[in-house]
Amino acid sequence: MSVQEDRLALYELHGVDRTYGGGSQAVHAVSDVDLAVDAGDRLGIVGESGSGKSTLIRMMAALDRPTCGEILFRGTDIASLPDKRMGDLRSSVQMVFQDPRSSLNPRMRVGEIITEPLRSPLLRQRDDVPVDHGHRLREVMEQVGLPADKADAYPHEFSGGQRQRIAIARALAPKPDVLIADEPVSALDVSVRGHVLNLLRELVAEYALTMLFVSHDLRVVRHACDRVVVMRHGQIVEQGPIEQVYEDPQHPYTQELLAAVPTIRLR
Ligand SMILES: Nc1ncnc2c1ncn2[C@@H]1O[C@H](COP(=O)(O)OP(=O)(O)OP(=O)(O)O)[C@@H](O)[C@H]1O
Ligand SMILES: [Mg+2]
């Protein structure tokens, strides 16, 4: 098929399964998922606990492999790449996790944490990677609203919201194309969630990032995303533009989720 490179979806998933364990103990964490993500999409992924959201995005970040199916990233099936080549993708795709207390190394200084992805040997293969790490560090610290003179401090010297800003700065440092955020504000104090969300939104716009954003909170997804995927028992039960899905949900499970948040409707 002669499809132009720029016409390809950034991601195309076909029949993706991820099973943990085997026999009668097997857990079908993700089952038969088909999904296309275009460059610049801000895709929310919602669904109850255990529905397979984290498993799905971990595979899209090349941190895990499907049991079967294809995950095309710019037309290349990352599911069947050798480990060495998976690293190329990891340099374009960065993640922010739920809890910065566990995702940031407590024994590393903030400056080292943020610039660590820049020191990956895989990144040096990309020609748009910042080479002046000190300059890039100051730049991203400023962008996420952290005082640059705190680069020598350790994570425990920061508040929860600031720690998540450190995690965001780290993810942005290598100028990725895709930012994957797994419940990035749910471990934070309610009073700082809005600030961190707004920051993410601004940065996604500024860097023209493609974002995959997992959240239990449908309001947060509405705020941060323009498309949504609803997962249940490892499968996508509904997907579409936010307005369409939130205003006119087709699947009973989506209707149930939205009914639980009565103020969610857009109009
Ligand atoms: N490493 C693993 N080994 C075994 N089972 C796993 C593993 N990771 C996930 N699972 C199982 O796969 C299913 C999907 O888990 P997953 O973490 O993807 O769900 P989730 O939608 O992210 O849930 P949550 O909202 O609680 O984070 C669950 O039944 C979970 O117990
Ligand atoms: Mg999860």
UniProtKB/TrEMBL annotation:
Keyword Nucleotide-binding assigned to the entry: answer is: yes
GO BP term, pick one: transmembrane transport
What's in the keyword line of the UniProt record?
ATP-binding, Nucleotide-binding, Transport
Q: Which domain of life is it from?
A: Bacteria
SMART domains per the record?
Answer: AAA (SM00382)
Query: What is an example of a GO molecular function annotated in this UniProt entry?
Result: ATP hydrolysis activity
Q: Name one Pfam family in it.
A: ABC_tran
Record flagged with keyword Ubl conjugation: no
InterPro entries hit by this protein: AAA+_ATPase (IPR003593), ABC_transp_ATP-bind (IPR050319), ABC_transporter-like_ATP-bd (IPR003439), ABC_transporter-like_CS (IPR017871), Oligopep_ABC_C (IPR013563), P-loop_NTPase (IPR027417)
Q: State the family it belongs to.
A: Belongs to the ABC transporter superfamily.
Q: What is this protein called?
A: Oligopeptide transport ATP-binding protein OppF (TC 3.A.1.5.1)
Q: Organism, per UniProt?
A: Luteococcus japonicus LSP_Lj1
